[in-house]
């Protein structure tokens, strides 16, 4: 223990006298603080958008329902009454916003929330034509990603670790002190490990400080303690992984220049080369192109004009959805035209569903194939873990899509029930408006532990090889 204190004290003096390292350390802290601000600004902006569209949607729905009491002696009143009273028109004018609420840790890892839509205007019309609507995004921004705290940890923290520890052993040889260390009663490999422990402690303390700042800044309370613990476990596991890799490079006892170049090459390999190669290997533009799928859905617009053609569509619809088949055919006949169109829209979605499911399955398969290489890519693995924690990954985007499909069925039923029964809407109907709920599931410990296990295995393997070389070959 005394040896550890002496070495750590010596390293601390070197750090305080090395203005280059101090400047790099301050720059890293500044980058982390800006990343915290950026993450909060992006998610706060999304929350303001969510609050605004919710307020507007509530006002629109109130105005629509108010139409049931409108003065039908005027043209404006009659139009307002028809929008609310006719279920066939209500399908068009009763709009909802399906919203994927940002979770607290999304401020730390924005993930794919800037790529996948987090809200969608929805009514009882075609589901997939609404689902495949998207806003225009800046391709350069989407390519660059977000400068959030997860970005700083994944991309910049390894560079800071390299700055600290690329010359743990080579510096002693280049300063002429290695021969002196060899004759000390303390083994050389233990001295190197003590130096590594010092820099690991500095990095861990810095991570704890930054994490405390982001928790307070982002309004994350102790009620999210389990999320905080997962965050620290992921960040520390990634840090240990890089220290293990750096120790392995030092264990080959080469020059400081060689160690620095090798460390930077390793950074480029994990952060740039491997992700690019994986994206190229598992990208099939023809299989995952949504444009063809949208064209497939749009081409099937159009309903026959004759009554037999419309009746044929209704017969097909009733075979698939017998619950909508009216018992009072006389009352139902008054909405025949709108029933036929509604049946056609529903059948169109049913016809498109296999293709849509196949498209999303291809996207998911590609995601899983890349995930299978997490062992050789700790950076992508860690990013995926942060996204799982923030509910900002592809898994949560798929959960949101499934929630949209389930809610669309509720919304369609709300309009179809009176439509196919041949009756008008009443105030009592609007007391049972469907409500959208896309609450994300809790932390899925299975994928989290699997990803962490990959980091731990890589750390253990590299550290074991490095220790063996330091112990027996240096």
From TrEMBL:
The chain crosses the membrane at residues 21-39, 149-169, 190-217, 229-252, 264-282, 448-468. Keywords: Membrane, Transmembrane, Transmembrane helix. Pfam families: ABC2_membrane_2. This is DUF3526 domain-containing protein. It comes from Paraflavitalea soli.
């Amino acid at each position: 223990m005394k040896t550890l204190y002496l070495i750590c004290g010596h390293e601390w003096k070197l750090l305080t006298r090395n203005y280059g390292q101090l400047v790099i350390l301050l720059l890293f802290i500044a980058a982390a603080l800006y990343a915290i601000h950026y993450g909060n600004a992006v998610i706060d902006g999304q929350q303001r958008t969510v609050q605004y569209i919710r307020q507007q949607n509530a006002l629109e729905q109130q105005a629509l329902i108010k139409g049931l009491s409108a003065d039908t002696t005027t043209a404006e009143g009659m139009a307002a009454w028809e929008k609310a009273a006719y279920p066939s028109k209500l399908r068009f004018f009763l709009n909802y916003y399906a919203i994927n609420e940002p979770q607290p840790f999304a401020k730390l890892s924005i993930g794919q929330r800037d790529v996948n839509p987090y809200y969608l205007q929805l009514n009882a019309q075609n589901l997939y034509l609404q689902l495949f609507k998207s806003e225009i995004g800046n391709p350069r921004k989407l390519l660059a990603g977000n400068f959030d705290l997860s970005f700083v940890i994944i991309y910049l923290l390894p560079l800071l670790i390299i700055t600290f520890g690329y010359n743990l052993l080579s510096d002693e040889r280049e300063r002429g002190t290695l021969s002196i260390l060899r004759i000390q009663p303390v083994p050389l490999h233990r001295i190197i490990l003590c130096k590594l422990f010092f820099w690991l402690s500095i990095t861990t303390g810095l991570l704890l400080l930054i994490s405390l700042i982001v928790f307070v800044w982002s309004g994350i309370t102790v009620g999210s303690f389990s999320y905080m613990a997962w965050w620290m476990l992921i960040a520390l596991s990634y840090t240990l992984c890089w220290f293990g890799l750096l120790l392995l490079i030092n264990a080959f006892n080469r020059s400081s220049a060689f160690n620095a170049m090798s460390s930077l090459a390793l950074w480029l390999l994990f952060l740039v080369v491997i992700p690019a190669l994986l994206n190229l290997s598992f990208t099939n533009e023809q299989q995952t192109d949504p444009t063809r799928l949208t064209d497939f859905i749009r081409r099937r617009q159009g309903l026959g004009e004759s009554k037999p053609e419309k009746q044929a569509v209704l017969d097909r619809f009733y075979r698939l959805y017998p619950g909508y088949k009216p018992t009072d055919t006389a009352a139902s006949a008054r909405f025949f035209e709108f029933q036929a169109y509604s049946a056609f829209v529903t059948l169109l979605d049913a016809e498109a569903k296999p293709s849509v499911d196949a498209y999303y399955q291809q996207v998911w398969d590609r995601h899983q194939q890349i995930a299978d290489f997490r062992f050789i890519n700790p950076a992508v693995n860690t990013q995926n873990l942060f996204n799982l924690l923030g509910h900002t990954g592809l898994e949560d985007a798929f959960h949101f899509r499934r929630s949209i499909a389930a809610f669309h069925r509720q919304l369609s039923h709300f309009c179809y029930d009176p439509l196919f029964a041949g009756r008008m809407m009443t105030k009592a109907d609007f007391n049972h408006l469907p409500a959208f709920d896309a609450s994300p599931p809790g932390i899925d410990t299975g994928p989290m532990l699997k990803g962490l296990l990959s980091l731990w295995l890589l750390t253990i393997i590299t550290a074991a090889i490095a220790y063996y070389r330091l112990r027996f070959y240096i």
